[in-house]
Amino acid sequence: MGLEVMEVEIVKRCGRRGCLLRNFIESSNAKMHEEGGAILPNLVSGYNKLQQSSSKNMKLIKEGFEVITQFHYWEIIKNQFIDMLIFDIFIGNQDRHPFNWMILFFDTEIKFSPIYDNGASLGFNFNHEKLIEMNTSDSKLNKYVRNARVKAGLFENTHVKAKDLLIYIRDHFPNELENSIKKLENFDLKEYKEYIHSVEMLTVEQKKWLTRMIPAKKEKILEWVQAKEGYHE
Length: 233
Prior knowledge:
The chain has helices at 24-27, 36-43, 47-51, 57-68, 74-91, 128-135, 138-146, 162-172, 174-185, 189-198, 204-226, and strands at 8-13, 16-21, 32-35, 102-105, 110-112, 149-150, 160-161. By secondary structure, it is mainly α. Helix 6 crosses helix 11 (204-226), helix 7 (138-146) crosses helix 11 and helix 8 (162-172) crosses helix 9 (174-185).
């Protein structure tokens, strides 16, 4: 999708698989960095109240954006933040809480960090039996895609419906969403599938799942964006 993400390599040590992560703070020579969940409570009103809110779905999403749009740096990070949310819906990220994105401070500029901590995605907790079940049922795949929930970079412990988040963004940030959707539309599914099949450490069922799920996610996001359904509390 052309997004800036943390550089990660899958490695093996003493027969065990793990991840090697490049420290983007040091490599970019940032003078200071702050995670969203650390900086927002000090710079906007309502952050702590938001985390304790009993609201659900659209109403909670509205409350979340009312908090972050007060943020002094919102206009600087807005495009990248929306990109990140669309990316998270696409990959099914379950853990984009406010401490999983960051702002980097340099001598003369402020930047949104590369996207990091994307591991709780792609059906990450499905075991072999669950993958077989999902791979042999179109209805279960569709249900998984349709009912996806995310933390939206705003909520520490609460999830909202991915569809509601997308509709809210579409109706309140149409220009930013248009740019994000263009990136999604340009995502090369053929190249993606070839890459998945080339990864030796993936099982047959994992490869089948990943090559079924991502195209279904892309199709569903584009369907939601084009739907006539609008924002409502």
